[in-house]
Amino acid sequence: MNLLHKLSAPRLSMLPASVAFALASLAPLAQAQTLVELYESARAFDATYQSAKLQYDANLARADQARAGILPTAGLSAGASRVNVDSTTSPAGGGTSFNTQNATLSASQPLYRPGNWANYEQGFRQVDLARAQLESASQDLIVRTSQAYFDVLAAQDTLAFVRAQKEAVNEQLAFAKRNFEVGTSTITDTREAQARFDLVGAQEIAAENDLRVRKIALDQLVGITESQPRPLALPVNLPDVVPAEVNTWVSQSEQVNPAIRQARSNAEIADLEVKKAEAGHKPTLDATASYNVTKNPSNTAQAGISSRANTGSVGLLLNVPLFAGFSTQNRIRETLALRDKALSDLEGARRSVSQNVRTAFFGVQSGQGQVRALEAAELSSQSALDANRLGYQVGVRINIDVLNAQSQLFQTKRDLAQARYNVLLGGLRLRQASGTLTPEDLQQVNGLLAR
After folding, report:
1. pLDDT of residue 91
2. Mean pLDDT of all residues in 27-37
3. Are 28 and 39 within 8 A, CB to CB?
4. Among 38, 130, 175, 257, fewest CB within 10 Å belongs to which?
5. Across residues 71-81, what is the average pLDDT?
6. Bridge partners of residue 329, in order along the sequence
7. What's the confidence (pLDDT) of residue 12?
8. What is d(CA 296, CA 102) in angstroms, rounded to the nearest whole number?
9. Interatomic CA distance for residues 442 and 144, integer angstroms
């Protein structure tokens, strides 16, 4: 029998709200999943990531097709026909019929085709492009899973704090009613407490619905019905940003960020596309070989004599382009403009990544400062609430002061919990912005979860 069952309902209701919530959370904690476990489920279930993975496989196959332009080709053809000859020049007049059978084996090896070699080199760039696209999708899945995970935890915290506030307001309402009955307070205190109780009731309904929606989003992402994210262990020791210099993060992103790598691969592919267009002015040279067998079994035009001819040939085929209606020149102009566009996109990607890295870096630093400030504010708000309760009991404070102090305390608790989640998520977003985010980075967050 677990601890929750050992406590009777009356005893449980007599405990403070925070303790009761902690005890109630012990039961489902054993079945709760960590962030790494839910990420692995999302990796196998999420349709967006699976689509990106299949696109990666297709891109690899497309890149391998480029090798066909520099490899030899071979073909075999065969045919059979019947020939009818009706001649008026023969001494006997009339006609004749005979069968013809032939088979040809041919092969060709490109020797000089600059366009094909440029296309072959493009295949390597397309592999790099496909790999960067898949890494971008993987990093996006990590962030989306973490966002959904922390959204559920934040919604659970909000609902728990609203219910705790509702219980505290209810106690204050009962206290105001007793004071009014004995004549030590006015009806105003009771009505103020009742209004605040009704307002918190509405907030509870909204918090319940928000939690329901957040859980649905997480379940749809990871493919688990009624998933239970494991909460953070208290007290929370948030990790520092390492390295602590923003320029280090920016310089690191220049080489590994998937967006920059994609833009760089596109620029290299565009440059090779120019070479392919320029190859339209250049000659091509192929080595060719063929072997042909032609057989006339019987009843041929040579007085019924069977015949068979075997023909083999080896040679070089030179093709020199002379004029193509200015299509080659216009194609070169097009590819030059597209190459300049790709270079401009590369510079734009570098600037965007640099801005995103700096924004994420300072966001994490700001979030850590907010956490420290809110932790101090939580202690101050608790002291203010205790002082207002004591002041209300001795008659130097009114009921609305206590209610406002309660509201401020629980709002501070919600903001503190959300700030902690934002810092953890901000650290992952910083690594995503720099391009260094990997599934192993989730292990650090896992170490902060309750066990």
Report:
1. 56
2. 76
3. no
4. 175
5. 93
6. none
7. 37
8. 9
9. 13
- Phi, psi (deg, nearest 5) at residue 233: -80, 140
Distance CA 302, CA 281 (A): 50
| Backbone dihedral angles phi then psi of residue 314, each to the nearest 5 degrees | -135, 135
What is the model's pLDDT at position 7? 37
Positive or negative, the CA dihedral 109, 112, 113, 119 is positive
Instruction: Please write down the long-range contacts of 172-179, taking CB distance under 8 Å and 24 or more positions apart.
Output: 172/196, 172/399, 172/402, 172/403, 172/406, 173/197, 176/399
Closest listed residue to residue 277, CA positions, set 358, 338, 346, 199: 338
The mean of the pLDDT values for the chain is: 87
Question: Distance between CA 427 and CA 442 in Å, rounded?
Answer: 10
Structure tokens at 228: 């239970």
Phi, psi (deg, nearest 5) at residue 348: -65, -40
Query: Per residue in 78-132, pLDDT tens?
Result: 998 887 777 666 555 556 777 888 999 999 999 999 999 999 999 999 999 999 9
Query: What pLDDT shows up at residue 99?
Result: 82
The answer to whether residues 65 and 262 touch, using CB atoms and an 8 Å cutoff, is no
ω into 235 cis (within 30 of 0): yes
Burial of residue 139 (CB within 10 Å: 0-12, 13-18, 19+) is buried
pLDDT at position 167 over 80? yes
Contact at 8 Å (CB) between 142 and 428? yes
Report how far apart, in Å, the C-alpha atoms of 131 and of each of 61, 143, 239 are: 13, 19, 30
Residue 101: strand pairing partners: 80, 295
Q: Look at 374 and 393; give whichever has higher pLDDT.
A: 374
Question: What count of other Cβ atoms lies within 10 Å of the Cβ of residue 383?
Answer: 12
Q: For 183-257, where are the alpha helices, taking DSSP H only?
A: 187-222, 246-256
pLDDT tens column, 383-432: 999 999 898 888 778 788 888 899 999 999 999 999 999 999 999 999 99
Q: What is the DSSP string of 133-148?
A: HHHHHHHHHHHHHHHH
Map tokens 């004591």 to a residue. Answer: 390
pLDDT of residue 299: 53
**Helix (H, G, I), strand (E, B), or coil: what is residue 1?**
coil
> What pLDDT, in 10s, does the model give residues 273-310?
999 999 999 999 999 999 999 888 765 555 556 678 89
Task: Give the residue-averaged pLDDT of 223-248.
Answer: 91
CA quadruple 148, 23, 196, 408: dihedral, nearest 10: -70
**Cβ-contact 371, 239 below 8 angstroms:** no
* Residue 437 φ/ψ region, left for φ over 0, alpha for ψ in the -120 to 50 degree band, beta for the rest: beta
In order, the DSSP letters of 53-96 are HHHHHHHHHHHHGGGGGTS-EEEEEEEEEEEEEE-SSSTT-SEE
Give the number of other CB atoms < 10 A from CB of residue 437.
24
